[in-house]
Amino acid sequence: MTNAQDKLDEYLNELEERYKYYFDVERNKEISGVSVNIFAQSSTEHFRQVLTKKIKIDQYYTKEYAIVNTIKRFGDKNEIEKFSKYLVSLIDKMLIPSLEIMSTIFNGVLVSTSGFSEEAINFAERFKFSKSFLLGLKGWCDIRLILIDLKGQKLYSNKKGEEVLSAYKVKSFLGGDKT
User: How confident is the model over 109-151, as pLDDT tens digits?
Assistant: First the structure.
């Protein structure tokens, strides 16, 4: 096994452990015809109550999915575009708009052992996707696009992805954290 492969395996195992606290995690799952390294999903219930916990005056859910895939070569713009289109296609396949679900977030994470081109990084940083359903009454959906460069130990994301970027820190293979 190569050193890059060892780093990749170690990072994926570490990421899986981080996800396990809040998500249901599956490894090597096929979703919509594409094999992904990690698929994680979470559903959180929010409600307000009056007097006792049994009397709820309103209730809604937030859902979050993480789709992690890897590339073992230098990531170019076409690779990132393809992955982002795949994430957008998942919305119609996995999401059922509902009055009970307020928001859904897809975290698309692409991990490279060889880095990303400048074009790929620029595309990811400018990528935007947000969709509302029935003027927001049936919720909305956002996509966070995150690139992880294991070789350079750097993280890149779109604006929405910056909200969770610190959770994807690459543990330095010499010790400590790198962002």
Answer: 999 999 999 999 999 999 999 888 777 667 788 999 999 999 8
Q: Tens of pLDDT along 11-52?
A: 999 999 999 988 999 999 999 889 999 999 987 665 666 767
| Angle (nearest 5°) at CA 176 between 169 and 69 | 30
| β-bridge pairing 177-178 and 170-171 | antiparallel
Under a CB-based contact definition with an 8 Å cutoff, are residues 145 and 157 in contact?
yes
CA pair distance 38, 81, nearest whole angstrom: 20
Residue 150 corresponds to which tokens in the numbers above? 């294991």
Per-residue buried b or exposed e for 14-51, using 16+ beta carbons within 10 Å of the residue's own CB: ebbebbeeebebeeeeebeeeebbbbbebeeeeeeeee
**Pairing mode, strands 101-112 and 140-149:** parallel
Which residues, other chains included, contact 97 with Cβ-Cβ below 8 Å and sequence gap of 6+?
133, 134, 138, 139
Question: Residue 116 has what DSSP assignment?
Answer: B
